[in-house]
């Protein structure tokens, strides 16, 4: 079910930008606001399983790497110079 919101204290300049974008895109002010919100908020977060699958695939694509603690400390020192 669709929900409604009311925006209070919308700055005039922001309203003007939204209205101009709505006109340019041949949308109502409401539909333009929805598109802006969808774009700004992005898509829903993937599930934990999907994220883990992506992380594992990335890790496998990088190949084996082995650093000893002294190398890691040296890398940290170099970055801080």
UniProtKB/TrEMBL annotation:
Pfam families per the UniProt record, alphabetical: FitA-like_RHH
Domain of life of the organism encoding this protein: Bacteria
InterPro entries on file: Arc_rbn_hlx_hlx (IPR013321), FitA-like_RHH (IPR053853), Ribbon_hlx_hlx (IPR010985)
Residues in Antitoxin FitA-like ribbon-helix-helix domain copies: 4-39
Any one of the GO BP annotations: regulation of DNA-templated transcription
Name of the protein this chain belongs to: Plasmid stability protein
Organism: Synechococcus lacustris str. Tous
């Amino acid at each position: 079910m669709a929900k409604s919101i009311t925006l209070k204290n919308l700055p005039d300049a922001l309203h003007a930008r939204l209205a101009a974008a709505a006109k340019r895109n041949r949308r109502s002010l409401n539909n333009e606001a929805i598109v802006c919100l969808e774009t700004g908020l992005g898509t829903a977060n993937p599930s934990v399983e999907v994220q883990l699958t992506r992380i594992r695939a990335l890790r496998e694509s990088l190949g084996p790497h082995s650093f000893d603690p002294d190398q890691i400390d040296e890398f940290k020192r170099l970055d801080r110079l």
